[in-house]
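Box 3.1 A note on notation
Throughout this textbook, protein chains are presented in two layers. The first layer is the amino acid sequence; the second is a token string describing backbone geometry. Keep the layers aligned when reading.
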Amino acid sequence: MEVQIGASGRLVIPPELRQQLALKPGDRLVARVENGRLVFEKAESIKQRLKQRFAHLKGQGIIDELIAERRSAAQEES
């Protein structure tokens, strides 16, 4: 489906595409260039994908490790 960029750089997403993607007024999209293409994606979709990708790391974050190290060091100093 072809769309045209307006004079002020605005892009209108045709109703058919908005319906297919369940886009509603106020939805936030993230834009990026990927292999010479302009890609728009719902911010919520990106968040969900990242949560799934890193779910196996839950509880093993660097912050948790640093806190554990600090607590251990504090106990050794006491």
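The first helix runs from residue 15 to 20. The first strand starts at residue 29 and ends at 34.
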